[in-house]
Amino acid sequence: MMKKVKYAILGDPVSHSLSPAMQNAAFKKLKLNCKYEKIRLPLTQMKSFFKKVLNSNYQGFNVTIPHKENVLPYVDVLSLEAKLIGAVNTLHIQEGKIFGYNTDGAGYVHSLLHEKKWAARNKKIVILGSGGAARGIAVALSLAGAKEIIFANRTLAKAKKLAQEFRRKLKKTKWNFSSLDYNELRKIFPKADLLVNTTSGGMENNTLAPLPLGSLPSRALVSDIVYRPAKTPLLKAAQKLKLKIHAGLGMLLHQGALAFEIWTGKPAPLSTMRQALNRILNP
Ligand code: ATR
Questions:
Q1: How far away, in angstroms, is 237 Cα from ligand 1 center?
Q2: Is 116 among the residues known to form the active site?
Q3: Does 66 sit behind a cis peptide bond, omega within 30 degrees of 0 on the bond before it?
Q4: Which ligand 1 atom is at minimum distance from the Cα of 208?
Q5: CA neighbours closer than 13 Å in the CB half-sphere of residue 43
Q6: pLDDT tens-digit readout, 254-283
Q7: pLDDT band at 200 (very low <50, low <70, confident <90, very high)
Q8: Among the residues of the chain, which ranges form H helices?
Q9: Residue 202 has pLDDT above 90, yes or no
Q10: Which residues line the pocket of ligand 1, CB cutoff 6 A?
Q11: The pLDDT of residue 238 is above 60
Q12: Residues 6+ apart with CB under 8 A from 153
């Protein structure tokens, strides 16, 4: 019998990850002899881990907090998107080489397409936050043809730095930045086709400053990448104003589906994977 091919999520901590359930459900559905595990990897053990990995049954990994940048030195071939984002969430081992990808941003864009029939081409977008998640989403939206992207962040300097970096690297999109000041946002929101929250301020215990959602145009889509709770305070407020909303679970699903497709070369069984996530989140 062929040896089981193994995959894993690398992070520290990893105990709460939903990826094993989602990926193992997909392997089972397609009857693949594969197994997906969780590996808690302290930074101090990373070097020895990657030394051994080429002689193991592992053929791929997802990478999560805090290692999305830490693993970069071990990647032999980096995708264009991962290079622009400056972080990877997916590794694929092939013929003794480690290939690095970032499916977070593309997963987000796929989720908008699949769930909301929403395409980024020529759209104007406001991204709340300027951390790693904002970078991933911004790069993918820009590559998908976004016309303008504005980073709005609590720490203005971070938003400015990011906008300036992408002005140099992704010239087809117009890049801007703002604070989270209510009156500043009131000037920006009327032209936004999409408002997406990438900050942990969307979670129940960590509240975002009040936002002038009433200044968004009626066509706007309000999106939150936070998936616990499914309907964040931001999404609830948007819904009250009769705006369209897009929840965070789709990004988790589609980043996983894209990783699955990189590893197996087969279309991901999306509904099986979504069911696996829902079974855990809504038991
Ligand atoms: P991630 O990888 O999840 O993006 P990160 O890189 O630490 O995490 O970035 C977190 C983002 O959430 C930052 O933009 C942060 O704002 P600052 O740059 O001002 O720190 C933002 N953030 C976190 N909590 C927030 C809150 N309560 N209100 C507003 N922004 C918040």
A1: 20
A2: no
A3: yes
A4: 28
A5: 8
A6: 999 999 999 999 999 999 999 999 999 988
A7: confident
A8: 19-29, 46-53, 80-85, 104-116, 132-143, 156-169, 182-188, 233-240, 249-264, 270-281
A9: no
A10: 129-134, 153-155, 158, 198-201, 206, 208
A11: yes
A12: 128, 129, 130, 134, 159, 177, 178, 179, 180
CA atoms of 226 and 198, how far apart (whole Å): 7
Catalytic annotation, pick one of 38, 68, 123, 124: 68
| C-alpha span between 162 and 135 (Å, rounded) | 8
The radius of gyration of the chain's CA atoms, rounded to the nearest angstrom, is 19
Q: How many residues make up the chain in this entry?
A: 283
pLDDT in tens, 109-148: 999 999 999 999 999 999 999 999 999 999 999 999 999 9
Dihedral sign for Cα atoms in the order 5, 97, 266, 39: positive
| 185 neighbors 212 (Cβ within 8 angstroms) | yes
Residue with CA nearest ligand 1 atom 12: 199
* Contact by Cβ (8 Å): 26, 253: no
- Residue 79 tokens, joined: 């995708």
Q: What is the pTM of this model?
A: 0.96
Specify the pLDDT at position 210.
86
Q: What b/e readout covers 213-237, taking b as 16+ CB neighbours within 10 angstroms?
A: bebbeeebbbbbbbbebeebbbbeb
Return d(Cα 104, Cα 141) in angstroms, integer. 11
Task: Give residue-wise pLDDT tens across range 240-259.
Answer: 999 999 999 999 999 999 99
Peptide bond preceding 269: is omega within 30 degrees of 0, i.e. cis? no
Give the number of the atom of ligand 1 that is nearest the alpha carbon of residue 68: 2
